[in-house]
Each structure stands twice: as structure tokens, then as C-alpha cells.
Amino acid sequence: MFKGIFCPTITPLTSEGDVDYGAWSKHLNFLIEGGVDGILVLGSIGEFYAFDEAEKRRIIDFATAEIAGRVKVFIGTGSTRLKSAIGLTRHAKSAGADAAVVVSPYYFGPSEAAAEQYFGELAEAVDFPIVLYNFPDRTGSDLSPQLVSKLREAHPNIVGIKDTVDNISHTRAMIAATDADFAVFSGFDEYYLPNRVAGGAGVISGLTNVYPELFAQMHQSFESGDHSAATRPAGRISNLMQIYAVGDQFIHTIKEAVQRRYLSELNTATREPYIALSATQRDAVTRLVDSSEV
């Protein structure tokens, strides 16, 4: 079973909007040295929606080669087109990734029957671990614990879920509905401890881009049984959650925090549309990042 701290990495871009592989190499190594257990490429913070299929394949090839087995690699392969999701998932497998993370088809927000059909056909088409991605605020539909349990029982290669729901009771019900080998990750940074207490696998969350070592310390303390020590980094993470409220788009704001903390050459723009942070907002990000330094 997958477990621990997984970072949905940002995708650094040049001022022209191309992938900045040099900056990304530095960032991936920063994450690995910071102690994360795995990295998710082409997640929401990685702007999966903004790249065409050819770009995604190049990104997958680069990231898997750069990480080179040092930590687990998840690849976001979700698409509203099942054929595209199957193709990208097969490419992720051939590139050496460990699992595909597949978001629910979005825009129309599928019914439970449609979601069951979509994920079931995907699981049948690929001999590869699949982690479901539940993000109702973006997809317009929720993967219920009952549906996830049904998919897991029918398709053993559906091995986990990223439950990005700001309600720990939803994630707790997901854990209770599935077997012990099914990895239930929370998608919100501050839910690591309640997730683990409930029997979950950990978090896949954006602030790991900024302070991977904080999350690693928390995970290591929990794993060792020193739950009191785990609460100290958890408190700092709770304070950092304010970063998400700064600016128009949290992806851009996370990039700003990464730049302010250590990667000064990082271009903080996302692919369009986005609104640049104001000077006041940039200062707010700086204060939050500085306040969490040891």
C-alpha cells in the first residue's frame, strides 16, 4: 500500500509559457531531499488541464527519469475522454511510474453509474495501479464511499484515492468503507493527523512544495509513535494554510511561496488565465513563509 507524504509538484514555466525543466529539476530534488515519500506529476497544482497530450508525455518522461526511482511517482492521467486517459496511463506505466492518479471526468459531473463505468473501463484497459482523485469542487460530482468500495472490489488495480474534500468525516467514511490495503489520502494539508488516526494513508497536498521537511517530520514522528512530536509541525502547517487564501489562484500562490522560500529564479506565472499577485499579496506570502522558518 502507498503511504506517507506525497507532493503534487508544481510545473515550473518560463516567461514564454514553456516548461522550465532546469528549474523543475532543482525543485524535484528539493522535494526528495526534503523527505517526501512520493511525487505526483500533472496533478491540479501541476496544471494538468493546461497541457496538450504531447506535452504531457514529454513531462512524464522527464519527471520519471529525473526522480529515477528515489521516491514513488504518481502521474495524473485523468481526462474527460476515456481514450486519452487510457493512453496516458499506459505511457505512465511504460515510463516507469508507480501509479496513475485519475480525476473524475469533469464539466458534466458524472452520475455514480457513469463514474462506475468510466473508472471500471479504465481499470480493465490498463494493467497498472490506479489512484482515484475525488475533487467535487472542480469536477461537479462526488465519489461516494459506497461507489469507491464497489470499484475497489471489482477492480483490484484500483488501489487508492485522493479525497480532496474539506470534510474529514467524508474521508473517514471512505477509510471505513474500503479494505486495509486501499490507500486513502487526504487532499488537504492540515488533515494528515486526522487521516492517519482514522486509518488513512497520509496526504497529497500542495504546501509540500514549500516545506516538504515539515510534512516529513510530522510523518516520521507519527510513524515512530511520537504523536506529541507530530503535532508541532502540524501547527506550523496549520498556520501556512493561510497561503491558500492569498491571490486569485492557489497554484500561482504556491509558486510564489516556493520562489520566496528558496527558488528565486522560479517564474511564478501559471498558464492562462491567471492574475498576477499584487505587491501587497506577495508581501503576505513572504510573511507567511518567513513565519514558518525554524
From TrEMBL:
<dbReference type="GO" id="GO:0005829">
    <property type="term" value="C:cytosol"/>
</dbReference>
<dbReference type="InterPro" id="IPR002220">
    <property type="entry name" value="DapA-like"/>
</dbReference>
<protein>
    <submittedName>
        <fullName>Dihydrodipicolinate synthase family protein</fullName>
    </submittedName>
</protein>
<dbReference type="Pfam" id="PF00701">
    <property type="entry name" value="DHDPS"/>
</dbReference>
<keyword id="KW-0456">Lyase</keyword>
<feature type="active site" description="Proton donor/acceptor">
    <location>
        <position position="133"/>
    </location>
</feature>
<feature type="binding site">
    <location>
        <position position="204"/>
    </location>
    <ligand>
        <name>pyruvate</name>
    </ligand>
</feature>
<dbReference type="GO" id="GO:0016829">
    <property type="term" value="F:lyase activity"/>
</dbReference>
<dbReference type="InterPro" id="IPR013785">
    <property type="entry name" value="Aldolase_TIM"/>
</dbReference>
<comment type="similarity">
    <text>Belongs to the DapA family.</text>
</comment>
<feature type="active site" description="Schiff-base intermediate with substrate">
    <location>
        <position position="162"/>
    </location>
</feature>
<dbReference type="InterPro" id="IPR020625">
    <property type="entry name" value="Schiff_base-form_aldolases_AS"/>
</dbReference>
<keyword id="KW-0704">Schiff base</keyword>
